[in-house]
Amino acid sequence: MQDQEPQRPDLVIVSNRGPVGFRFDEQGRAVAGKTAGGLASGLKPLVADGRSLWLAVAITEADRVASTRGRIDANGIQLELLDVDPDIYADAYDIVSNSTLWFLHHGLFDLARTPVFDRRWHRAWDNYRRFNRLVAEAVAARAPHAADVLVQDYHLSLVPRLLAELRSDLAIVHYTHTPFAGADAMGILPTSVGRELAEGLAGATACGFHTSRWRDGFTSSLRSLGVEPPATFVAPLAPDTSGIEAVAADDACRVERDRIEELRGDMRLIVRVDRLELSKNILRGFQAYADLLERRPDLHHRVLFLALVYPSRQSVPEYAAYRREVEALATSVNGRFGDADWNPIVLDTEDDFPRAVAGFTLYDVLLVNPVRDGLNLVAMEGPAVNEAAGVLVLSREAGSHTFLAGHCLGVNPCDVVETSRALEQALDMDPVARAELAAGLVGELRSRTPAQWLDAQIQAARNRAPSGPQGPVP
Amino acid sequence: MQDQEPQRPDLVIVSNRGPVGFRFDEQGRAVAGKTAGGLASGLKPLVADGRSLWLAVAITEADRVASTRGRIDANGIQLELLDVDPDIYADAYDIVSNSTLWFLHHGLFDLARTPVFDRRWHRAWDNYRRFNRLVAEAVAARAPHAADVLVQDYHLSLVPRLLAELRSDLAIVHYTHTPFAGADAMGILPTSVGRELAEGLAGATACGFHTSRWRDGFTSSLRSLGVEPPATFVAPLAPDTSGIEAVAADDACRVERDRIEELRGDMRLIVRVDRLELSKNILRGFQAYADLLERRPDLHHRVLFLALVYPSRQSVPEYAAYRREVEALATSVNGRFGDADWNPIVLDTEDDFPRAVAGFTLYDVLLVNPVRDGLNLVAMEGPAVNEAAGVLVLSREAGSHTFLAGHCLGVNPCDVVETSRALEQALDMDPVARAELAAGLVGELRSRTPAQWLDAQIQAARNRAPSGPQGPVP
What we know:
2 copies of one chain form a homodimer.
Chain A: E1 11-14, E2 22-24, E3 30-32, H1 39-47, E4 52-57, H2 61-67, E5 72-74, E6 77-82, H3 86-106, H4 119-142, E7 148-152, H5 159-166, E8 171-175, H6 183-186, H7 191-202, E9 206-209, H8 212-224, E10 231-234, H9 241-248, H10 251-264, E11 268-276, H11 282-295, E12 303-311, H12 317-337, E13 345-348, H13 353-362, E14 365-368, H14 378-385, E15 391-395, H15 401-404, E16 409-411, H16 416-428, H17 431-445, H18 450-462
Parallel strand pairs in A: 1-4, 1-7, 4-6, 7-8, 8-9, 9-10, 11-12, 11-14, 12-13, 14-15, 15-16
Antiparallel strand pairs in A: 2-3, 5-6
Helix pairs in contact in A: 3-4, 4-5, 5-7, 10-13, 11-12, 11-16, 13-14
């Protein structure tokens, strides 16, 4: 009996990537692998309740095999994986979602050259529409009556409208994890495409964002395209601190800690942990560090920059090119300042979460300097487990800077001099000031939980007018 | 006696480049050369009145020699050329004005990599401030009492505030010829730099723009930086149609016409005339043409794309790189579709104004597809003298599209398919429809004159409150 608690409606979470990925074991069976951090890890305990369904796309071959089983119990989560035609999915994922919409929302096009909306691209857009329709139909076929449907991110921008047309009983929330492009940037898209995206999102009962800045970009974009925005809400995702703490306490992490401690000796430690991609601003981070080493010869042999950056989306050509630039720059900085006894930058491109968490526990300075970022969980996951009263140097263009500003050193991500001075200030800071900043940071990042973030979406779904998603919303 | 006319106050025009440039003649004397089109040509007759002074920077060595003469009568214009230390000027012009502010206002940074505000850049910024101060002091020393001072463009963003502090009797207008970056883009600049720019411009009695879109970018940018915007006005610059007509009637142009007519034979003629730079979108123009040739083999040997694109700012590395890309793409399209009898693209990188005007008179289609452009005079200069009822294909991101939209084929500059279809539609259009569009276009572009544009600035200066530029303005 649940009569002590307000009844929660059935919940359907829809995302491109699922909360677990599958791999083949030695017997060739598809088994659930480890969780891929971020969104999923914090939500898992909340949706393993028997009233929730998670619908995602089968991405790997093992996912596809698993998808044939229908509903899967994956570590307590009811999961269904959608097997999409690989050609349709490649167009929707690589060309439209990641090479176009992701660049658009992050403001990262090199506009003199990209994007080029040629015939190949327009065919890919047709496949993005097909992909969104397949997802909407899959949700429509599975969602319980009057369920709350939480659609995640830019891969699924058209789902709200399509789903609302199929199932007027559902409350549909769309949540954007990236920044949201303003009106000028939205005008880059082919006109009918921009409008279709806007109408797709406007089909939601409500749309959610990490910060009011991205929300404002969304509403001004929609208005510039002649589309009235739906209700909106701002609810930043929170880190899964207990999950990170569990990893930090684990043996695998302890082994990595020992390795890093041996590497650093008695040097000060600057750490960055990022996906190796264009928004993370890895190049200017190294440039700032080089500027610091040039200004402060006394720091030579006394500081180490450990860059734990793991490749992602290598099927997007811009990402592969960026990786080569990052590697070349690290080599060049090491050649310029290093010697036989000292490598100023250790660049590690292996994807190893226990190692990243080990870096979190040990850093003196955590550098998080994205060009633009919807939120940035690293800026909260690191401080959650750091044991050295480390200082966070944080880009003002990360959504998390909105509420962490008082407890970090904020930088303009394009300003290498300001970033260099912030690294210097962090290294030079006296222990009392460091401890004070670190304590404030931990207090702030623990004031929010993934559960609150999920509740905000459910509340937004519940606020709809009784006439359904087409009705007036507050 | 002037008692029949309202008295016009003394006028000072301040710009980076002067209305005439100087060159050395055979005897080694600095003599005034031909006018560099654009802004200057339409204004010359208006300011050659004895009550106007034009203050500009000595750019060439011959300019510097001429500058030693003090006030110069250059084709009727009273001109003073300011000799600025070349190192200061190179920093202000190349690094801050053209590699930073121009890219910022046009939205053309490749943000994952540029801009990088390193120590070299911050020193250049100090020199931009010095340069603006030198210009402000030069104006302050020369402007008659209570004169109207019209400061032109992004090279001189700090002049209004600096000048207002030196001379509270002056009415100071700043006019921006480029787009103006919105609040998100302004945030790319180092924080103190963005604020100093905003305050510099806010020191004007009024700030003018080609379109309300750029004006809105300006006011939202200033507000986002905590600076209250001054009065603003929108007054698009108009082409100097009589000047273009005079060139078209000249022998030099007739020679060029004959050459182009021989080149084209009985082929249809697509023309573009542009500075060879990143905002003009020359690459996607060729890509669109290639798409057309692929879709329409019947057009092979029956159409010629004459690209008259003249290099500029080759001291900016991005421009030199872009030129190589443009040349490589033209070669590649010609290799793919051309043969011994037919070169689909003729790429001409010589700076020859009579040739450009000859192209204007002859085109069947004029392609003007900038990624972004404050106004774009080519879209009006071409139709002013075209004799073939040619069709204008115009980017919706050009300021001039605001009022030419009804008389051209508008395109999204990133959408190669839409541009290809617009070229096709223009070539296929029947003579009656072409003539109708062309007539409407000529009517529209002749409805404005450079004199009206100048008057709008003078009016904006006159509207100031009597207490001077620091006082409240409407």
